[in-house]
Amino acid sequence: MTDTNPNPLPTPSTPPPDILRCASMELVVTDLQRSRDFYVDVLDLVVTEEDEDAIYLRSMEEFIHHNLILRKGDEAAVAAFSYRVRSPEDLDRAEAFYRELGCPVKRNSEGFVKGLGDSVRVQDPLGFPYEFFHEVEHVERLAWRYDLYSPGALVRIDHFNQVTPDVPRAVGYMETLGFRVTEDIQDDAGTTYAAWMRRKPTVHDTAMTGGAGPRMHHVAFATHEKHNILAICDKLGALRLSDHIERGPGRHGVSNAFYLYLRDPDGHRIEVYTQDYYTGDPDNPRVTWDVHDNQRRDWWGNPVVPSWYTEASTVLDLEGRPVPTAERTDDSEMAVTIGADGFSYTRADEGAESMPTWKQGEYKLGHQL
Amino acid sequence: MTDTNPNPLPTPSTPPPDILRCASMELVVTDLQRSRDFYVDVLDLVVTEEDEDAIYLRSMEEFIHHNLILRKGDEAAVAAFSYRVRSPEDLDRAEAFYRELGCPVKRNSEGFVKGLGDSVRVQDPLGFPYEFFHEVEHVERLAWRYDLYSPGALVRIDHFNQVTPDVPRAVGYMETLGFRVTEDIQDDAGTTYAAWMRRKPTVHDTAMTGGAGPRMHHVAFATHEKHNILAICDKLGALRLSDHIERGPGRHGVSNAFYLYLRDPDGHRIEVYTQDYYTGDPDNPRVTWDVHDNQRRDWWGNPVVPSWYTEASTVLDLEGRPVPTAERTDDSEMAVTIGADGFSYTRADEGAESMPTWKQGEYKLGHQL
Amino acid sequence: MTDTNPNPLPTPSTPPPDILRCASMELVVTDLQRSRDFYVDVLDLVVTEEDEDAIYLRSMEEFIHHNLILRKGDEAAVAAFSYRVRSPEDLDRAEAFYRELGCPVKRNSEGFVKGLGDSVRVQDPLGFPYEFFHEVEHVERLAWRYDLYSPGALVRIDHFNQVTPDVPRAVGYMETLGFRVTEDIQDDAGTTYAAWMRRKPTVHDTAMTGGAGPRMHHVAFATHEKHNILAICDKLGALRLSDHIERGPGRHGVSNAFYLYLRDPDGHRIEVYTQDYYTGDPDNPRVTWDVHDNQRRDWWGNPVVPSWYTEASTVLDLEGRPVPTAERTDDSEMAVTIGADGFSYTRADEGAESMPTWKQGEYKLGHQL
Amino acid sequence: MTDTNPNPLPTPSTPPPDILRCASMELVVTDLQRSRDFYVDVLDLVVTEEDEDAIYLRSMEEFIHHNLILRKGDEAAVAAFSYRVRSPEDLDRAEAFYRELGCPVKRNSEGFVKGLGDSVRVQDPLGFPYEFFHEVEHVERLAWRYDLYSPGALVRIDHFNQVTPDVPRAVGYMETLGFRVTEDIQDDAGTTYAAWMRRKPTVHDTAMTGGAGPRMHHVAFATHEKHNILAICDKLGALRLSDHIERGPGRHGVSNAFYLYLRDPDGHRIEVYTQDYYTGDPDNPRVTWDVHDNQRRDWWGNPVVPSWYTEASTVLDLEGRPVPTAERTDDSEMAVTIGADGFSYTRADEGAESMPTWKQGEYKLGHQL
Ligand SMILES: [Ca+2]
Ligand SMILES: [Fe+2]
Ligand SMILES: [Fe+2]
Ligand SMILES: [Fe+2]
Ligand SMILES: [Fe+2]
Description:
The structure is a homotetramer.
Chain A (H helix, E strand, L loop, with lengths): L18 E11 L2 H11 L3 E5 L3 E5 L9 E5 L4 E9 L3 H12 L4 E4 L10 E5 L5 E5 L22 E9 L2 H10 L3 E7 L5 E7 L7 E5 L4 E8 L3 H13 L6 E7 L6 E6 L5 E6 L12 E4 L15 H5 L2 E2 L18 H6 L18 H6 L7
Parallel strand pairs in A: 1-4, 5-8, 9-12, 10-17, 13-16
Antiparallel strand pairs in A: 1-5, 2-3, 3-4, 6-7, 7-8, 9-13, 10-11, 11-12, 13-18, 14-15, 15-16
Bound molecules: calcium ion and fe (ii) ion (4 copies).
The site of one fe (ii) ion has 5 residues of chain B, from β9 and β13.
């Protein structure tokens, strides 16, 4: 990675918590029943527990209480990106780490939500509401319950994706938190457009996408196989809900995974994802993609729809207030690829001109026919 | 089907040939080696026989000599849509049938191409070069040769798709030739935009798509499973040939099949297709789709790219000359769906307005952001 | 095929009915609720209609009233192998054809079962209860109803399989009825052990398996993909019903299809099957397998369990009485392959000796370790 | 786990090396070309490097030099189970750890094999030749090279499986080495028959199977999807090598993965494996299976073939001499399940009697028909 980080955050002197994995997201939704219809009846997530205000959902292979919370609220937003840490002591480390960074920090030994014990919530230096927990209620791992699987069964939570203006700055901070970069998107001038970072040995537990932020870009769940993702699309078609499909299905360049992006009834973006690769070795090779490579985000060269670049969910501070966003000052990926002066190529050495005429049109905003 | 056929072709008094199935297409290509690279090295079709001028290809489960001929020529075009008939006598029927229609007819007891015996070629009333044959050289059916299968193996030729200005007129003619309609696309006013017709009991052996014609829209090959189609996309990406992907992969509404459209080095369109349904009963229910239903051509509501509507291959007459095309006079599917005055909906009762803003933009030409 | 048919049935002078396809089987089951649990709750067949005595089931892509009838009775048996014919007149042909053969024939213009109109039932020369119908109640084809698909969805009825002592004799009769042989199993001496015959252009609508008969060996339903069949196994495991799996899953040599054999609560055998090949050309090459080739019935060489050879369902005559069976007089496939003097090989030229010791043991009854 | 470990190995006072994952196995093969045909031409493993004596192979997603070494030798055997450690310093830890245990230890700063740097080889307390390395030559990760994928592509090395007489003793030792148990097979009396242990967060990096040992039971490679495993079987059939299939394909109970066991030309056992679950949390629930549960090793209840229980590969000491084996003294899994006094059930509460007669026969050695 040739990019620099001219505006780094300080590195705390205390060690970071030992984060195991991204574990859950808390979404604020405006119509709890409508969201339930989407996540439970359409996507077949499993209800661990629910009441009038919130629904706790998990995936088929999960043994902790939840991977997604739907909480009723007036405005759609994200209340927490929640990570599981290795031990109870890691909560002390999390608290000290963020206090040293001068962040708002709250701790609740009973947990901020059902199913969890002692928890720390912070508004991190990038403005995101991060939660850390270790103690958690165990529930049945439904991995073997094939009588409950649907054709599009979601089996694991895989990762978050966050929008933030300055990607190198965000990466620098995440590295102090113990994350490692596996892949990124740059240009020749060294501008970084996005970066993928992991704790568990997959391509990521979270990614940083350049744009006005802090905002939540998406949360991703894994299926076993590609046909499971296709089955979700087929079911949405049958229910006449195909307009929940925003982008895909397709094969990512970055991560090599098969993907689909959906929008929930509030517009929160959900990814369904399968088959990235093992990244657990310390010298795992970082893959850097050129921003103009049209196979970077879709290996088949299918265009990224503009809304995917521009729309994302509001995040909340620890008081439940929307966090104001700052604009990105570096070039935007949309502008340099499909904007008026942007370009994308299939073959780097041949440039955009070697693409068929009808294909070039796809890559310009406002340019069709 | 409420549409009428105000300008029908005459019905011959002689019986039509008993057509078994669409069997092969003869493509004229401008660079034989480059086309070979695409069809043999990328798509893994099997070479039955080849010389300096032509390559004869077949699919993995085929036992007749070829399903596709690549013939070297100066201008890309289609020289023959070839159907196999049940018996040698059906060639006499074909000859009589088309002579009565006043069409140009040629017969060659040695076959017009390698691998075939006695054959009839006609320029049919719609202007298309149709070939009929029965005698054919048998070759090894490679169905069990899993040592030769690639991840995206093409196992059968499935259907043709033809562009013609007046779909009801074309359908009327094809019905006299013994075809049956399985599905079509219409509007409330009774305009027919496209129709699918079969001899073998799948959704079609050929389809008629409304537009300036005669032109060849595409020829389709089948895979066993959906992942085989995804593997073709993945391979195109690996070879930096992803710009051969024009549309898809996706699930069709019409036919319920999973599909992908590619363009070959000359721009000829190839579909890869799997899993439509049995249609062999005489009362098989016809499915009529509303042209404004955005799930009709892609069940997931992904937009049809404009080039798919507008571009198609020239066809040749029996002397090898390009056949001039006539314009469509009825409404065009592109105009009424994604044109300035067009519209598409996900839910008929809610109209286009209930679709998300970012989704509506997809459905207007020149309208992005 | 080198075998002869020394004891042929007479060929009727009247033309046979034009059979479209195998369409339904009527099973007598001893505990209707238990059978319903199996076919509806486990296998997810669709209930078209049911009452206290019978349940009418269909597959996801079917548009006729039923593909399987479960009828309550005292003894498990098969009451009808039901074929759909092309036209009402074909029922007259069926009646005349079987009367000329001297078979018991019944005709009911109202249908013998719900959903059907004018029907002919016969006890055919081999002793099997065959039904023919054309008129049928149309129901919704659920092909597009992906909201109703389960991971192991059965989409079509594919074929029957019948046990009869003299296979060449049975084949001769079926050929007069208009069937064509696609594959068979023989030995060097010309003994035929089994034969597959089709009307629709798949490998078969029914097969004749040599053994004491008439008995019903199995009825088969198709899935779209192989993983659907695996999902049925997984679900049976989850429900602790895995002992319903008798054989497979595996790849057939004969037919090249992927398969699984289940036994229902009464012991009726059900096959789940996917991806055979097109056989509709009149010169479709017949494939003859050597009985000693251990890849003929399982392409992976996994052994056929003895029960699969020996057990089959009783069939009923037109009065509902069990039809007595006659023994096979030719060699039995089980005896010549896994019996005391039998043998199987992986490579014909190397014989059984080249197989690993542990593999040879699999192929001898009573020989393990 | 109720079992005890009456004969524990001492726990070294020095910390164990930080093992990342099982990384490679070194197999001694008697005919290098024949083994190459199997691993390269049939299984499509990628050759990183080869000479007259050895072939270095890797899987499609690997970036280190090799996952499997085939080395020419007089007697088939296993020369090394090789693990990658986190840092160079972990090699010092490995050396100290095993010296304290009194094991034979060798260290080679140049690596014992090509592609590796500083390495430690030990004969561990159970008699197995374990190798540890950190420095390794990086090679191209072929994850995106879909032009090179075959239908049955092996994408990762997944785990080893070792045969050892006393499973609790082996587990105790492996826990001191930093492994965690994810699943095991026991009986009511507390006898442990097998245990699965992991470093990377999958079900295992190695498993201990009770039996005469030390011997190597198998090494496993992962595919992306289940159909990839079926494709390997299909290809073996096409090559008339189906007798390399020893067991499966099937779904494991333990691990929930889809599996296939092959035997290579020397009889070394290879597993192909896909889709187990995440186990990286410290409180990941251990799953204990009853040895009499016939779904424990095959979720579909298909029988384990006797050779799978009894046959395994010799392992070599650090001088290249075969390590003598000690017999198991506890009950054997084969004896208690399919032996004369053994039994297996599908439903614990119903016992073996509720299984169909033909199914019961499968579960007794020497009992067929
Ligand atoms: Ca797409
Ligand atoms: Fe993502
Ligand atoms: Fe098509
Ligand atoms: Fe069958
Ligand atoms: Fe294993």
